[in-house]
Amino acid sequence: MKDFIRIRGISKTFGDFIAVNKVDLDIGKGELFSILGGSGCGKTTLLRMLAGFEVPTAGSIEIDGIDVTHMAPYDRPVNMMFQSYAIFPHMNVAKNIGYGLRKEGVAKAEIARRVDAMLELVQLVDFKTRKPDQLSGGQRQRVALARALIKRPKVLLLDEPLAALDKKLREHTQFELMNIQDELGITFVVVTHDQEEAMTLSSRIVVMDKGEFQQVGTPKEIYEFPANRFVADFIGTINTFEGIVTAADDETTSVYSDEAGETLIARGKQLFEVGQQVEIAVRPEKIFIDKERSTREGDICLEGVVDDLDILAIARCIGFALPQEK
Amino acid sequence: MAIVASAKLSRANGLVQKIAINRNKETWRRIAVAAPYLWLFVFFLAPFAIIFKISLADPIIAQPPFTPSFDEAGRLTTTFSNYSFLLTDKLYAITYLRSVLMALATTLLCLLLGFPMAYGIARSNSSTRAVLLMLIVLPFWISFLLRVYAWMGLLNNNGVINNLLLWIGVIEQPIPMMYTDFATSIGLMYSYLPFMILPLYASLERMDMDLIEAAQDLGASRTKAFWDITWPLARPGVIAGCLLVFIPAMGEYVIPYLLGGPESLFIGRVLFDEFFINRDWPLASAVAIILLVLLVFPIVLLQRYQARNQEAGS
Amino acid sequence: MKQQSRFILSILSFGYAFLYIPLASVVFFSFNASNLATVWGGFSTRWYGELFRNDQVLEALFLSVRIALTSATLATILGTMAGLVLARFGRFKGRTLFSGMITSPMVMPEVITGLSLLLLFITLQQITGWPGQRGFSTITIAHTTFSMAYVAVIVQSRLVSMDESLEEAAMDLGGRPLRVVFDITLPLIAPAMIAGWLLAFTLSLDDLVIASFVSGPGSTTLPMLIFSKVKLGVSPDINALASLIIVTVGLGVVLAWLFGRRRSSKAQ
Predict the structure, then answer these.
(1) Which residues in chain B have Cβ-Cβ distances shorter than 8 Å to C122?
(2) Are the C-beta atoms of residues C128 and C85 closer than 8 Å to each other?
């Protein structure tokens, strides 16, 4: 089902401020979908509208064929994991996880059974009777996850699920999240500002800025074919060259760049007209460095001088000065 | 076909449910607003209308002792004579002025003692700070009346201070301290000092002490750093503290009565005496209205500062 | 930690001496055998004994405690509602007036509050016949009115510092708004409510001026009784009564403080 969640023309304004501006989105069943953007881009507002904490100013939201636009949060088949985790400090781990079932009026024995199963899933069996203030950050995160999953929601919303964890724990938890999602088949909608996290986690991503969608697509699509300058800059690092289109057909576009001092050839679907002023963007990992000029067919060679060397953790970042820049 | 129908049905159900929930939600929310609202409206706001009404009447010997607002023919019988009397009579003018001056002096004394104390508490280490703060708050829990009473025992002609001084031999005759303005202002200062220290402490504690070192590092002297950094940052606390002392001190009744003696002219006392001793309800009401008018501005100012402080604190 | 300057240290010592010497002197002279309240005549506990044989004092104390218990409870209920409304209900019609009415009673001079309530009760009596007699009920209403403001402010500031997503999380998990108030909000603000209740209780026990206005013949609260005696000057039996109150309240506050500190250090 491609349109398990159907968002149509959703807007949200706070006074004069437009947080989300007329967006449409379809999310399929079982997807792990990320909403990616900087702070204040409207991603959290969009998530809160899915959860029911904000009523849209215009537009509608459907989940599994049911219009939930005006449905209260406690009636929606949707649960949320909060950025602060929002663990109830006066209840122990088991009570926290079982809260949703208690509100549903599920029988006590059934609650106990399902809480135990959840504790198993998130590996917190030994922490059943602990109070939240006796848990580590990672454990709190797992309590929040278990609590949000126990009602078997149609959609799980995750607001910056990993932001509160330190870097080491974050990677581990990321894969745990993906495993759990895979195991349960629940649709996950994740809000994050971390592009790396979005790229590894998600089946699809939407990049948001100023309340509008910049691009929707798989991580590969977004990385390889950014729809505009904002997306290209936001995702990963990129080198850009200004130039003028000299030749174009259905598969390739040739651009002569003064900056590069060469004609660059790009493969892509976008069609430009000859003579148009464009920017051409190259991912750093597509650039190879050699002392000798490459003679291979189709390679584009630029000459330059190494003027900066940064050693990153796993890669080296090499700054080049092109002769034209001097 | 069936799927569309069921989707429509569940949509309709959702709508019905939503309406039911909103109604349900509204009821308890309304109660939560209405109960305190109504209570305060009836027992706090409405009485001011009554005071105002009575302040426009004439006193008569009857039950209740004032003329009704309308006579038997239904004509309005209100009069501003109480106000014109209060505003022209010298004794009342002096009373208002004295109350304002005493309240101002008290505020200043509290600030002079309270600021260095709050500063010292804010700069002490956290365990001492907790004890010091608790000791500031503690007298607040002990009966106000008894705290004033304690000073009677100290300031009397044969009280503790005079006896001590006589015994040491510094003085030959007891110094008359009771029933003077000195005694009143000591009492006021004693009672309201915690109200000054707490907001001052709150704003000083929030201040980053590195700021002062940064200012000194940039070449400011100690005093210069105080006036350039500490004082402006403490200002919200200073204003809140001053208002918290000034406003209640203006209307004080017990302290001038017990420590200031029969001669002590204070608005609060005059109001009380006009009402209970002279049984002139209209005049007492007019005294209250004028006091209220004098205090409206500081009260509004205080509320603005407290709202701002609360935002800053969160 | 910086070394405190000598100036600050001496001001601090002076300030605390100023706050506590008067109280200490009352307690000291309560054990005075002499009839003269402030001239030492040897150690004795006779004034404490006389206090417990004084029916008037016990009766006034009983009335004061009854009023304080009732008004503190009412004030906590109404004040908690008001604090909840101010912190969580957002904007609604009449909010400005509402928050103004909440905070004004705290700073309003007591003579004005007292006079206005008395005139209200008299007007109400003329129109409706209630309250037939002023005393317990009118004083309780008056005390509830000014102490609910304190409770509201304490509860509000506690709510403001509390993570709002706790309540949202409960709602997200299927808790209806009223249910969430009882499941999450109230348990978490309970310490603030207790503090508010204690403050309201003390304020009520403490009040002289407002009670003097709104009480009727035959209902004398403890502060009213003390005031009528104190007017005549310092006396040894009042010293004894004052000492009992000072020591009880002082110990209570210190113990509560120590208990609170141990709990909060354990939580960390």
Answers:
(1) 64
(2) no
